[in-house]
Structures are given as C-alpha cells and as structure tokens.
Amino acid sequence: MEIVKQGRQSWRYTNPPQIYGQGVCGGRLEGLGPLKESFDYVYTDLYAGENTFEKAEQKMQQKAGEIALAKAGLAKEKIDLLCAGDLLNQNTPSAFTARALGIPFFGVYTACATICQALAVSSLAVACGAAAYALALAGSHTCTAEKQFRYPNEYGAQKPPSSQYTVCAAGAAALGPRQGKGQVGIAGVTVGRVIDLSICDPFNMGAAMAPAFADTLTVHLREYQRQPQDYDLILSGDLGKTGQAIALDLLERNGVPHVAERFTDCGRLLLGENKKFFSGGSGIGCAASVGLGHIYRLLQQGQLNRVLLCATGALLSPCANQQQESIPGICHAIIMERG
Amino acid sequence: MKQKSKPQPPAWYNNIIKKHTPPRPLFRNCLAAFLGGGLLCALAQTAHYLLTLGQITDQAASTIVMLSTVALAALFTGLNLYDKAGQCLGAGLAVPISGFANSVAAAMLEHKSEGYVLGSGCNSFKLAGAVVIFGLISAFLFSFAALLLDMI
C-alpha cells in the first residue's frame, strides 16, 4: 500500500514520490535578495522581454517548468500530468504554459497555497500510479496581481504597514517514483479547510490567513501524532510579520506549543526585512520559490531532514469583498523529507 | 439595494489582531500629507502669481496652473514616480487635482495592453469615475440649493 490515510485531512506515502528536479525563477528584487543563490534564472526586467506583464508571468512560469524538467533529465513527453496554478483569472498563465508544454493538464487554484495543492495532486498521481512522472508548477507576478486584486500599479495610494508585497517568482518540481535512499521527496500531505474569521481588510491578509495556518498545522500534528519538534522547520507561505505573530497566538490557543523556535515564513525569507515590502512578501511565488529552491537545497545538502511546508492562501475576491464579504483563508501542508 | 454591513471578526480574534497589527502611522501620515500637499499647493500658487504678473488674467492663470498640474501628474505617473511619492506623502498627493490625474493616467496605463479603446479608454475612469459622477450630482444639488436661496 503506497498511500496510508492518517486521518480525515492527511495521508502519507510509504514510498515518498521523489523530486527529480526543480526549477525556480524570480524577478529582480527576489532574485537579488537574500536567497539569490537558490534561483536558477532571474528576470531583471518586470516585462521579461515581453510586451505585457501577463505574458511575462507566463514566460517565468514556463521557464521554471523547463528548468525542472532539464534538471530531472526528463523530456516533456515523459510527463503524464502537469498541475499548475497562478493568481490570475481563469488560471491563464498556467493554461498557456500547459499549451506550450503539451503535457496533460490540471489547473489548480487555492490562491497562494496553490503550490502545495499542485505538489499534493502531483505526488498523489505518482504514488497511486496514475502518472509515471508529474510536474507541479506555480508562480505569481507582482504587477499582474496588483492589477487584478488591488489598484493599477502606478496609482499613488498609501498602503498600511500590515499590507504585503506580491512577489515575482515561480517554482516547479518534477516528481517521480522513489529511486533510493538520500533523496528529497514529498512524504505526506495535509489538505486544509477553508477557515474564515470574518476579516474584510484586504490590506491585512496575514490576519485572514493565520487562522487557516493554525488550523492546518494543529490538524496535521494531531493526525500524524507528531510534535513541532519532529520537524526541522515549519514554514508558512506568506503570512508576513503580522500574520506570523497572530498565528503563534492562535497556535497557543489551540494548545500547540514550541512552534516559534522552528517557524519561519517564505515571504519574509525571500525578501528579507525591509520596510519597503511592509509586512513581507506574499503570492504563490513565495512558497513555490522558497520551498522548491532554498529549502529543497538545504534538504538535499542534508542541513535539514524534514520540513513542513504550509503554503497559506487568502481566497480574496475583489468583487465579493466589495459586496461586503469577508476573505476566507486556506492552508495546505506538505512534508518535504530526505530519506 | 441596501448594502449589508461587513461581517466582524469575533471579539477574541479581534483582540489578537489588534495586538499584532501595526497601526497606520497617523501622525507621520498627517504631517507628510500636510507638508507634501502644502508644498504642491504653494508651488502652484507661486506659478499662478508669476503668471498674473504678466498680461495673463487671473482666471486664465488658474486654468493654466490647473492644466499644468494635471499634465505633470500624468507625466510623473508614467515615469513610475507618482506611486512612490504617493506612498510617502499619502493624502497630500491624493486630494489635490494631481491625484485625480494620477488615478486616470494610472488606470489608462494599466489597461493599455488591452487596446487603446477597450483597454485604456473604457478603464480610464475606473477609479476617478466615482469622483466625476458624485461630483456632478453634488454640484447640481448645491447650485440648485443656491438658486433657491437666491429666490427667497
């Protein structure tokens, strides 16, 4: 039996699907930031040589996918399933990437938790034998996200310190059956529930997502019968400074101690502490590029052995928000393990 | 249709949010708005004064200053500077007519890739449209009220 059910929301793999290769692309701010070593390709221009930001986002995503395939030494014809997602309406960049790669395609979307969903579906397909190899792919672009979710990029509105900066980054991982010891793979998944504590402020996404993160982590630890100490690192996707502090209080309320010592946030790792980015980075690109770039490398080098990547998403709809609806949050967790 | 009010977080969660969410720096924002907006208006007033020193009438000078402010705001929007200054100076750049120009220019630039007519054209008043329509309505109501007061 390859897949063992741990509880209502979690399962684990007896033979964890292995990451054969990964690719991470970023924009200038991300690619020259604290994690610059982990990027495979950096676009110094927000347009990436295209004439629209939307095309630039698609190009960045496709590049990450192609790098992952190249590193894995797999031709795209060998890949049976592409799970990809982004923040734009109709998952356009992902669909166009799937058009270019010609791989059977599932579009996935859970806002900034998309990369974990893509990895979960891909690993599931590989583990149950539905796909020989699968490619998980996700990314975000600051300008397209601003345009869709907030104001035009050049509009001079003042943002509060709790707001976040959507990052330009994409990450991809080619998954396949486990080949032996000492390889990094996806050892298990906890699927998050949509949690909504009635936050309506789109400039405080940390507060909207923190309850989902706390819920998923609490459920994960309970269903796996583990303690936070069982992980070398617990990573949230893009909670930011504000969201991280709120999440720790919520975890304490849930009776989950000792998270703070091993808890970091991808968005903050990616951009570093800079007031320019307010509370920190956000967007799919955070968990995708940090999880599959920096963290993957640390796992591969043996500096980390087991990491829980909890990508957090704020399921914000500008339309629903104007209709006085709140912003639901979601968080999917995947275990990245070397073993 | 009556808009329903936004849902509120439960009190216990509100307390946690309040504890950790950094407040907007109100004093700093007010001061920056006062200084930034004040400087902008002082510059415009100086230009107006200099113009009236010549042959230009008061009304013509006002028009010239207003149009130049709009043009300059649009230019700085295109140069990717207005949004950066706006983050720093806030209401100081949003309230004067330059803020209006910025909202139109920013929206038009943003949607340029969707075409000049259906993109820039249709979306130009995406943000400023509310100001225009409600400005017109209130101008009409106020002048109507003034007319009635005059008749009494």
Describe this structure in words.
- The complex is a heterodimer of chains A (339) and B (152).
- With 339 residues, chain A is an alpha/beta fold.
- Chain A folds into 2 domains: 8-176, 3-Layer(aba) Sandwich (Peroxisomal Thiolase, Chain A, domain 1), CATH 3.40.47.40; 184-338, 3-Layer(aba) Sandwich (Peroxisomal Thiolase, Chain A, domain 1), CATH 3.40.47.40.
- Helix content of chain A is 35%, strand content 24%.
- Chain A has a 7-stranded mixed beta sheet. Chain A has a 6-stranded mixed beta sheet with strand order 4-3-9-7-5-6, with helices on both faces. Chain A has a two-stranded parallel ribbon with strand order 8-13.
- In chain A, α1 (28-31) links the parallel β3 (18-27) and β4 (41-43).
- The two termini of chain A are 18 Å apart.
- Chain B has one domain (28-151).
- Chain B has helices spanning 11-20, 26-53, 58-78, 82-89, 91-94, 97-110, 116-123, 129-151.
- Chain B is extended.
- The model of chain B has no long low-confidence stretch (mean pLDDT 94).
- The chains are: A alpha/beta (339), B mainly alpha (152).
- Chain A binds chain B through residues 51-54, 147, 151-162, 197-200, 204, 206-207, 211, 242, 245-246, 249-250, 279, 323-326, and chain B through 3-10, 13, 16-17, 19-25, 29, 77-78, 80, 82-83, 85-87, 90-91, 93-94, 99, 102-103, 105-107, 109-111, 113, 126-127.
